[in-house]
Design a protein that fits this description.
heterodimer; A: alpha/beta; 14 strands; B: alpha/beta; 6-stranded parallel sheet; 3-stranded antiparallel sheet; 38% helix; 14% strand; elongated
Chain lengths: 410, 423
């Protein structure tokens, strides 16, 4: 038995910011029915047929990211531009607990399925709408993907080294985090419904969700009037809250291999100094936190000369043995194929995709002792579960399903 | 109290790693009681401080992580302190903690201890590498957590510069997002069955599955993405997206448009700005405007003429970005339907008219200071059970008496605990 066995989601949400949310609920047992448009082969979800690929084959069922983000879900097709399509959706909504989507703001209203309509169909429905700038405000029509959300929300600005342009995030951090917030919102609303019988609409704005993540910096502005656009800021590999030194990402023996080291206090420094056992570590300048902060550039330089002598794993293991936070900057293959801890956690479950075959996907970062997650199903091929859902759930006959397919409704 | 979780009592024993999870619960209406050691959580000592004056009740890092909570102090070194924690846990829905693995068991406060008298209890443990596993005894900070996932992807085209950590304790916050989501799954199971359980949250695992293409490019294709300045890490290097606008702020041009009518509107924008002739690749834009179909990502990946058109579209946006102010570029592109962004600092986005109009600035009164400060607002808008900051972050031990009297202690017992330094 899984925790969310009794929950059904009619899920229009895609890419990662949307699909990542319902994947979490699916892993914990919810029946997630991904609904896609057959008329453009589900192309709204831009990762459906996009790289990476498992082999030389290409096509709308072969996107590697799509399989990762949609494992555990069922997939149906439904064209809401058709009259029959608009008649079918209410039947699905009527037996669902949640409707989720991350279209641009207003799209569901224009399709005739905004919250008021959904509520008329199912009074206690929970409706999650997730878009870049939310459902109101001057930028309501503006569109985003992860990097735009990160740029506008202030996250890109605070990832960088002094004297350099913003480094940004190198990936859609906010697609993940938007998905986490979407999952949290759906689950919290389900709890509220359990207690009160009341459903609701959730307006999730990616850029607002993102701007909550920099609260200390925002408070430094609203409370102290200190702007984040200033000389020497950000200095992202150093730590000023709390103040730590040395603190950074240091070069290891091989080119472009790195190790992260965080010296929390004088006891950590003593432990690091003993491990290094060179004359310079006894320099009075480095004996106190104040001294290490005041001489951070020199300290980083000297520490780098030491870290460069070893593999990143060796540096991390030696410092960890001495009780100091240190970790290799892991390349994907190091953390996925060579890390006994992610393996022991079961972080990379394998699914058997109908066209791709066996592929590993990302699992969950939390285990529940009694009702844990599993990812047993791959992402659905386009319309793969039309019969199961339209026939099994809605009781539509095979002949009717064939007719709907022929008419381009599903 | 409003919010979807107003019936839940959470006992939080967290420092820097887990307090954000407690805040998320508290702002959704849960009654979160933060338990701190005498002298308070060490986060109270983290800068920046109100008016730059170090004081346990003036840390903005603490404020960020602790809105809407109540706070008590308990001395865990004394059995009486541990007994009080057990008493609070007996009436709680959730115990949330971020102590090193083994520490709660040492204190006699682990899940088996606490669930005996409260079988519906959900205990949530946030640890760097999980409660078991080969690295469970490794210590960590935000920087070293992120080293196990996204740091590889962040940085610059110049690989002599190190990978970069994004600021703001995002490694901790990501673990907290997993903690809250997983806990709410357990809350629903408890709603339906009455059964509690233990939630084991692994920060390193959270970092691992929050890297987007870095993970799945390896999982699917066994290829390694490489970091680039201000854009996605990729296997095959991509073109720069981050452009310094005329006013000295950066903009990001994001994914260039691929629809013919959008390409036509870029040509029209170049004309408006009298820049068409200066942009030498305008004939490619004209060819793109005349296509009878959208350019697909797959076509771009394959190369060929459509890839060249797509390249020219991207170049045109960059060309315009360098010649106008950042905000004008942001609004100019977005109003034409293109997904481009201005790279705001956190304070700049906070003052942006859209965020102001949507109520993102939330005034929070600090009565002891006689001042009201603006805090960041809601990450999600619950229409029927609104998110809210119900109170400012608690002072040290502010609610010790209130919470313990609620738990049934007499004023005399409370006084004795104070005398003994237990609270």
């Amino acid at each position: 038995m899984k925790a969310l066995d009794r929950i059904r989601i009619t899920d229009f949400s895609g890419v990662l910011a949307g699909a990542g949310a319902s994947k979490i609920l699916a892993a914990f047992g919810a029946e997630v029915i991904r609904v896609e448009n057959p008329s453009n082969l589900g192309a709204w979800d831009v990762v459906r047929g996009s790289p990476p690929y498992i082999d030389e084959r290409r096509g709308h069922n072969l996107g590697g990211g799509f399989n990762n983000h949609n494992a555990g879900k069922l997939g149906i097709t439904l064209n809401l531009q058709t009259e029959k399509g608009r008649e079918l959706l209410p039947r699905l909504v009527a037996i669902s607990d949640v409707v989720a989507e991350n279209f641009a703001a207003g799209v569901m209203d224009r399709l005739g399925f905004g919250y008021e309509r959904l509520r008329a169909i199912k009074p206690d429905i929970i409706y999650l709408s997730n878009c870049g700038f939310g459902a109101s405000g001057p930028y309501v029509s503006y569109k985003t993907w992860g990097p735009i959300v990160q740029a506008v929300s202030g996250l890109t600005h605070i990832s960088g080294l002094p004297g350099q342009p913003p480094a940004g995030w190198g990936y859609s951090y906010m697609d993940h985090t938007g998905a986490y917030y979407g999952a949290i919102a759906m689950l919290a609303a389900l709890h509220h419904r359990h207690r009160t019988g009341e459903g609701q609409w959730i307006d999730l704005s990616m850029t607002e969700a993102a701007a909550t993540l920099t609260g200390t910096t925002i408070l430094d502005w609203t409370v102290n009037g200190r702007p984040a656009r200033r000389e020497g800021y950000p200095d992202a590999n150093h730590s000023d809250s709390p103040a730590m030194a040395p603190h950074g990402i240091y070069p290891a023996l091989r080119e472009d291999h790195w190790v992260a080291i965080a010296c929390r206090d004088d006891a950590d420094w003593q432990a690091i100094a003993e491990e290094i056992a060179e004359l310079w570590v006894r320099d009075d300048r480095f004996a106190t936190l104040e001294g290490r902060l005041a001489n951070q550039a020199a300290l980083d330089d000297l520490l780098s000369r030491w870290t460069r002598l070893f593999d990143e794993d060796e540096v991390a293991e030696r410092l960890q043995a001495a009780g100091v936070p240190a970790a290799p900057v892991q390349r994907p293959e190091q953390r996925i194929d060579q890390d006994p801890n992610t393996e022991a956690w079961g972080l990379w479950p394998e699914v058997n995709h109908t066209e791709m075959g066996r592929v590993r996907v990302e699992g969950m970062a939390a285990h529940l002792s009694k009702t844990d997650w599993s990812l047993d199903l791959p992402a659905p091929c386009l319309g793969e579960h039309n019969r199961e859902v339209y026939g099994g759930l809605l009781g539509i006959s095979d002949a009717e399903i064939e007719q709907l397919e022929a008419e381009g409704v599903i | 109290m409003t919010g979807p979780l107003t019936d839940l009592r959470v006992i939080e024993y967290c420092d820097e790693a887990g307090a954000w999870a407690g805040k998320l619960f508290a702002d959704m209406g849960a009654d979160v009681v933060k338990v701190e050691p005498p002298g308070g959580s060490r986060v109270r000592g983290y800068p920046p401080f109100l008016s730059d004056e170090p004081h346990p009740d003036r840390s903005l890092a603490f404020w960020h992580n602790n809105t809407s909570k109540r706070a008590i102090t308990l001395d865990f070194e004394q059995e009486a302190g541990r007994a009080l924690f057990r008493r609070l846990a007996a009436d709680a829905a959730i115990v949330l903690e971020d102590q090193p693995p083994g520490r709660m068991a040492e204190l006699g406060l682990d899940y088996p201890d606490l669930s005996k008298s409260n079988p519906g209890l959900i205990m949530v443990s946030i640890t760097p590498y999980g409660r078991s596993g080969p690295k469970s005894d490794w210590v960590a900070t935000d920087l070293t957590v992120l080293a196990g996932g996204p740091e590889w992807s962040n940085g610059y085209d110049d690989h002599s510069l190190p990978p970069v950590r994004g600021l703001g304790n995002q490694g901790y916050q990501t673990a907290c997002h997993w903690a809250v989501a997983a806990t709410l799954v357990a809350v629903l199971h408890r709603d339906w069955t009455g059964e509690g359980q233990h939630v084991d949250v692994n920060m390193h695992a959270g970092a691992n599955v929050t890297t987007e293409a870095s993970s799945y490019t390896w999982l699917v294709a066994r290829q390694t993405v490489q970091r680039q300045t201000g854009r996605h890490a990729t296997v095959v290097p991509s073109s720069p997206l981050q452009i310094l606008a005329k006013d000295g702020r950066y903009v990001t041009t994001g994914v260039a448009p691929r629809r013919p009518r959008e390409i036509a509107s870029i040509l029209a924008w170049l004309d408006e700005l009298a820049l068409r002739e200066a942009f030498t690749d305008w004939p490619l834009l004209e060819a793109g405007a005349n296509l009878d179909h959208n350019i697909t990502i797959a076509a771009v990946a394959e190369g060929g003429e459509e890839a060249a058109i797509y390249g020219a579209v991207r170049d045109a946006l960059n060309f315009i970005a360098e010649r106008i102010d950042s905000y004008d570029f942001f609004v100019g592109t977005q109003s034409r339907g293109f997904q481009c962004g201005i790279i705001y600092s956190p304070d700049e986005v906070f003052e942006d008219p859209h965020f102001v109009a949507r109520g993102f600035q939330v005034p929070v009164h600090h009565p002891e200071l006689g001042q009201t400060f603006r805090y960041p607002g809601a990450p999600y808008g619950f229409a029927a059970s609104p998110w809210a900051i119900s109170r400012r972050p608690p002072l040290i031990g502010e609610h010790t008496a209130e919470v313990l009297l609620e738990a049934g202690l007499t004023p005399g017992e409370l006084e004795r605990l104070r005398t003994d330094g237990v609270v």
